[in-house]
Amino acid sequence: MNAEKATRMSADERRELILQAATRAFAQGGYHGTSTDAVAKEAGVSQPYVVRMFGTKLDLFLAVFERAADRINAAFEGVLDAGPFDATSEDDKDRMGIAYTELLQDNDFLQVMMHGFSAGGTDEIAAAARTCMGKVFTTIQRTGWPDDEVRDFIAHGMLLNVMMSMRALEHLEPEHPLASLTTCAFGDALPLLESTA
Fold first, then answer.
1. Would you say 37 and 47 are in contact if contact means Cβ atoms under 8 Å apart?
2. Distance of CA 36 to CAs 25, 30, 56, 159, Å?
3. Are the beta carbons of 27 and 20 closer than 8 angstroms?
4. Which stretches of the chain are DSSP H helices?
5. d(CA 4, CA 49)
6. Could you tell me which of 175, 168, 173, 176 has the C-alpha nearest to residue 193?
7. What pTM does this model have?
8. CA nearest neighbour of 18 among 29, 32, 3
9. Cβ(39)–Cβ(50) under 8 Å?
10. What is the pLDDT of residue 128?
11. If pLDDT is split at 50, 70 and 90, which confidence band does 63 have?
């Protein structure tokens, strides 16, 4: 898309275009390895256009990361708001797990989250990651699970993130040393994610 066509879009459409392109670019290169020029090329607009819309590369990365973090909360809130939630029910616990597993089908989302959690050397990104984790913890506490179960649920989700990021699902052959852990970690969700590997 060229800048002329982009200027005929509404401001919300232009913002969305750049956020989608930035998500793809940051998923590939991370915060440190991605320039606003790379985002502009991915979006099909000029680099000054990206800067004019978002400001600095840091501002753009934070917008992308926070948007991804909001997707996590929205997924969990969707389960909790759908009706009664029984903290002792395995079915309800599975519904929470499936809500998160469905997000993992979007590899760009996953990689942006991983890059955000690992870019703690940049104060603003570290702060955004802490905020994200705090919100997720608070949202999952709404299940009524004790804090140690909430912690274990989040820890399991982070294990899935790492395994997806290292493309463990592409190496399920029995002789591979990670196959058993992958099968165990993903459980019933494995078929859902194998199609995205």
1. yes
2. 9, 12, 8, 31
3. no
4. 3-7, 11-29, 36-43, 47-54, 57-81, 90-103, 107-118, 123-141, 147-165, 179-186, 190-194
5. 11
6. 168
7. 0.88
8. 3
9. yes
10. 97
11. very high
Q: What is the mean pLDDT of residues 45-69?
A: 96
Structure tokens at 184: 């165990």
Mean pLDDT of the region 78-90: 95
pLDDT at residue 4 greater than cutoff 60: no
**Could you tell me if 23 and 112 are in contact, meaning their C-beta atoms sit under 8 angstroms apart?**
yes
At 26 the pLDDT is 98
The pLDDT value recorded for residue 89 is: 95
Contact 153/80 with Cβ under 8 angstroms?
A: no
For 150-193, what is the HEC assignment?
A: HHHHHHHHHHHHHHHHCCHHHCCCCCCCCHHHHHHHHHHHHHHH
CB of 136 closer than 8 Å to CB of 76: yes
Q: Average pLDDT over the chain, rounded to whole?
A: 92
Q: Which residues lie below 8 Å from residue 59, measured CB to CB, with a gap of 6+?
A: none
The burial class, CB within 10 Å (0-12 / 13-18 / 19+), for 85 is: middle
Lowest mean pLDDT among 110-114, 163-167, 191-195: 191-195
CA 7 to chain centre: 29
